[in-house]
Amino acid sequence: LRRRIGRLHGALGRRGDELEAESRLAFVGERLRGHLRPRARGSVPEPGRGVAHDLRELLDAHVLGGVTLAEAAREVRAHPTHLVRAFSAAFGIAPHQYLMARKVERARRLLLDGRPPAAVATEVGFYDQAHLNRHFKRIVGIPPGRYASATTKRAPSGSARIASVDPAPP
């Protein structure tokens, strides 16, 4: 619980990561409620796959503009905590991680087209270039500027082999 609160605090301090902060807050709230009202053994309900798939479709439709957890809960008609839990169980990652991976994938494609990282950041929906840099480096492994220069240097010979990020589940 302490680690989750620490991660929530970090997410609250970063601009542009509202969905991550809301997801982490939902988990912390659920844990606190669990400590106040412990459940009987074996009574944990199975997360709904339909809700998870509905949320994934919603996130896919809002990659550029993003969506808050409250908006997603209203749209999918499920409790925010249930949304996060069902999505994580169905796809193995939290909704905010999925959305960031989709944004980074779009950014990667634009960088391959020769677009400058600063323009790509705003076009893809990141708060600023530093926001893009942080998530791009975490997911791809190198900063977007280096990625762009590495692919443009190698692209004519056909030897550029930088892995694509495919956030969509099988």
* CATH topology assignment of the domain at 98-155: Arc Repressor Mutant, subunit A
Mass-distribution shape: globular
Percent helix, as a range, is 55-70%
> What's the mean pLDDT score?
80
Number of H/I helices: 9
Helix-strand makeup class: mainly alpha
What portion of residues belong to β-strands?
under 5%
Please provide the ordered H/E string of secondary-structure elements. HHHHHHHHH
Low-confidence stretches: 41-47, 157-168
Instruction: Just give the CATH class of the domain at 98-155.
Output: Mainly Alpha
The CA-CA distance between the termini, in Å, is 31 Å
Q: Determine Rg (CA atoms, Å).
A: 18 Å
Structural features, described:
The chain is 66% helix and 0% strand. It contains nine helices and no strands. Helix 6 crosses helix 8 (129-140) and helix 7 crosses helix 8 (129-140). It is globular and about 60 Å long.
Write the layout of secondary structure elements.
Layout: H1 2-12, H2 18-36, H3 49-61, H4 69-76, H5 80-91, H6 95-112, H7 117-124, H8 129-140, H9 144-154
Helix pairs in contact: 1-2, 2-5, 3-5, 3-6, 6-7, 6-8, 6-9, 7-8
What would you say about this model in short?
The chain has helices at about 1-10, 20-35, 50-60, 70-75, 80-90, 95-110, 115-125, 130-140, 145-155. It has about 170 residues and is an all-alpha fold.
List the keywords.
single chain, 170 residues, Arc Repressor Mutant, subunit A, globular
